[in-house]
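Worked example (supplementary).
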Amino acid sequence: MIILEALHSLNINELAYKHSLAIAAKNGQRIYENQLNLIKNAEAFRNKITIKTIFLNFWDEFVKIAKSKNKVIRPAITTAVEKMIHCKDLSKGYLFFECTKCNNFYIAGFSCNSRFCPSCGNRYREDRTREISKVCLNKPHRQFVFSIAKELRPYFLFYRELYDILFESVEESFDFLLKSSKIARKEKRDFGYVSFLHTFGRAINDNPHIHVLICEGYMDKDNLFHKYDHFHYEKLRKTFMGILLKKIYSVLKENHKNETQKFYELKCFLYKKYTDGFYAYGPKLENSSRVAVKAISKYIARYVSHPAIAESRIIDLDYIKKTVTYQYEPHQDDHTDDPNQKLGTQKVTESVFDFIAKLIRHIPDKGFHLVRYYGFYSNRTTKNKDKYEALYTIQEITRMKNNNYWINHLVASYHYNPLLCSCGATMTLCYELSFFPGGTKDG
Ligand SMILES: [Zn+2]
Ligand SMILES: [Zn+2]
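After joint prediction of all chains, the assembly is encoded as:
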């Protein structure tokens, strides 16, 4: 649940802010700073151009245009957008907190908890990070990235079932690396890894690729762990390309016959063009201490759950021309230190409807998993990894969970507790004045 700050929702002018600050100051530095941060955040919220503002103003028109062009909007998109639009909408319910000492109060609307919603996305990301952290062993890990030829991107846009194929191709490529020998099969060797699908690049463009967080080792049929840290890149790249192209071809042949001939030609062309296979890269970490492994696993888990665009990158919304302006740092700039080679921050101004279309494209269908667990990191595994130390202790995981409780989350991210009253007392939930239209539920 995210807070709708009471002063803000009631549109109380600056004088009220001053007043509450003056009272808070009397009650000590801690109470004063808490109040100051609360006000700062309410104002920052108001001045920013948010994704929600854009959808509130232009979504209905977008739907009308789509209908007039006979374009179908997937049900998952409608659900995610509606949820976000009504996030913290007080008419959909709220918790009412009051201060028994001074009559002050605080109204907290329910958040939508949707991944697509920028104000809930952070907590979604933290939840995701925790789930991933929970399965990892205290062993060295590394990250792999599997990209596809840009010529294939349009197919993924039209045939969303290919995203499953992408996951399967990565899985089968690792299987080929580890399990192709007779002895490996006899020993029932298995890696442990997590795959993450990312469908966009930095310019919110379509760029389906997979990140893998893999433990550098395999387990055998006796649950013994063996170190494995020499991944044969060339073999992996070529295998990945071969499997992927073969699989796409058979999906098209099965379900989209009219595409088969064209794709067959493309497939032959790609084999000639990408003689080294598709990009698949996973450098060994120089530091494999527990701290470093935690850092990389957290980084990947957070990075891959980030939204297609951070709101801070949106710099203008023109209501008359119906355009959005946003900026991004091009990926190419990461790979060069030469200032003459750097492209620098790129600014894009485009129709608000094109912008919306680009964003919603990345909303996954209901039930589609963007994060998948494999081998001894999967909960279907027959391997028993109990005797190996986990990357995080149970206490650490519990702490992560508590930090994500909505108040703790506000304290950690924005440095204020909305329930700490300016008079110094703590507000308590008033059940009678709270509103639960759909029955009681924890936001
Ligand atoms: Zn009070
Ligand atoms: Zn939300």
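Two points are worth noting when inspecting this output. DSSP finds 15 helices and 13 strands in the chain. Residues 309-361 form one domain.
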